[in-house]
Amino acid sequence: MKKLATVEEFDLLTQADKVVFFFTADWCGDCTIIKPVMPEIVESYPEVQFIEVDRDRFIDLCGELAIFGIPSFVAFEKGQEVGRFVSKDRKTKEEIEAFIETL
């Protein structure tokens, strides 16, 4: 999974066909639990581009997107937000896959 490098890259990536941004942080306990299963999820959805976003590096972007809990997921397609799985709660592999299936 590619890591977001700049806000400009974020703006460009939102224009893609299907992209899911995975908001995370190194200190986030729930994030460290889900990170090991993310490669399986990524492999299961080859039509979706997954981008990891470090919440601490992109705190202003998180504020603009109302990402107040992590891990969280926001999906874009051709410049439009098409879904979000955002909360402070721990997420399971099954919940993440169910979210992706709704896109």
Describe the protein.
- The protein has 103 residues and is of the alpha/beta class.
- Helices cover 34% and strands 25% of the residues.
- It is built from five helices and five strands, in the order E-H-E-H-H-E-H-E-E-H.
- It has a five-stranded mixed beta sheet with strand order 1-3-2-4-5, with helices on one face.
- The radius of gyration is 12 Å and the shape is globular.
- The two termini are 19 Å apart.
- The mean pLDDT is 95.
- The side-by-side strand order for the widest beta sheet comes to 1-3-2-4-5
Helix content: 25-40%
Q: What would you call the shape?
A: globular
Low-confidence stretches: none
Quick structural overview:
The chain has 103 residues and is of the alpha/beta class.
What are its keywords?
5 strands; alpha/beta; five-stranded mixed β-sheet
